[in-house]
Amino acid sequence: MARTRAQSAGASKTAAEQKKQTPGTSGRKRKQTTDQSSHQSKHSKTTKIEDASNVRNGKVKDLSSSSESLKSKAMALIEKYGELPLSSNGISEPSTPTASTVLAHIFNAMLTSARISHELASKTVSCVIEAGYADVQTLNSSSWEERTEVLTKGGYTRYREKTATALGDLCEWVLEKWEGDLNNLRKDAEDEPQRIKSKVKEIKGLGDVGVNIFCDTMQGLWICLAPFMDPRSLRTAETIGLGSDVEQMFEAVGRDPEKMASLCMAITKVRLEKRESEFKD
Question: Which of 122, 163, 188, 225 could join 219 via S-S bond, C-beta 3.0 to 4.6 A?
C-alpha cells in the first residue's frame, strides 16, 4: 500500500511538472492567431506598396491608355466601314426586329455563307428582299421557278436550284413551327444564345458559318446574342490590333448591341476586301 501511494504521488508530481513545462492548447492557438494576424498585416502592407509602385511605374496609366486605344480603333472602324446590317439591302425596318426583318437576316446568313463572292451574295440578298420574300406569305405563294429567277437575277447561278428549294423549305419551317414569325423562336429559346443557335441550325442549308453570320448581324436586334463575333472576323480583329477578347470590344463600343453589330459588319468588310493594313499599328 505504501509503495502504491508513493507511486501515485510520483505520478501526480510528474503530471504537474509536465503541465507546467508544456504550453497548453489554448496558448498554442493564441500564438498561431497572433502569427496569422502579423502575416496578414505584412501582406496588406506589401500589397499597398505594390499598388503604389504600379501607379508610380505607370502600369495603371498603361491599362487606361490601352482601353482608350481600343475604343478609338473600334469607333474608327465603325465610322469608316460599319453600318446597320441590311440597311443597304432594301429592308424597310432594319433597326426593328419585325418578322420580315428577322427572316431577311436568315436570307442573308443563308446566301452569304455559300462559297460565292460577297458582292454577288449581297446583291442576291437585295433581290430576294426586293421580290418581297421577307414577307413569309409572299414567299409561300412563290413557285420554285419564280424563286430560281430571282436568284439568277442576283447572280446566284451556281446554287440557284438548290437554294430555291431551300427557300421553300425555310418558308414551310417558319410557318409550321414558328407561326410565321421567327421572334417566336427567340421566345421559345428563352433568350439563351446557345439554344437560339441550335434552333436556327435546324434550317436546311444553314451550317455553322451561316449561324455565326446570323448571330453577327442579329445581335443588334436580338440583344441577348450580344456580344458575339464570327470566329473568322475575330481573327481579323486580332490581326488589326483589337485583340481577341469579345467582351473588351463590347466595352469599347459602350456595351451597345447595335454598335457591336456594326463593328462586326466593319471587320467583315475589312476581312473580305483585305483592308487590314489600314488599321494595323
Answer: 225
Q: How remote is the C-alpha of 175 from its chain's centroid?
A: 29
pLDDT at 63: 56
Mean pLDDT of the region 104-123: 95
CA distances from 61 to 64, 65, 231 (A): 5, 6, 31
Rg, C-alpha atoms of the chain: 33
The answer to whether the beta carbons of residues 54 and 60 sit under 8 Å apart is: yes
Q: For residues 46 and 25, give the distance between their C-alpha atoms in angstroms, rounded to a whole number.
A: 31
- Cα-based distances in Å from 162 to 98, 131, 134, 199: 27, 18, 19, 21
d(CA 196, CA 42): 51
- The pLDDT value recorded for residue 166 is 97
CA of residue 230 relative to chain centroid, distance: 9
Residue 117 three-state SS: coil
Q: According to the model, what pLDDT value does residue 85 have? A: 93
Burial of 140 (0-12, 13-18, 19+ CB in 10 A): middle
pTM above 0.90, yes or no: no
For the chain, the helix, strand and coil percentages under 3-state DSSP, each to the nearest 5: 70, 0, 30
The count of residues in the chain is 281
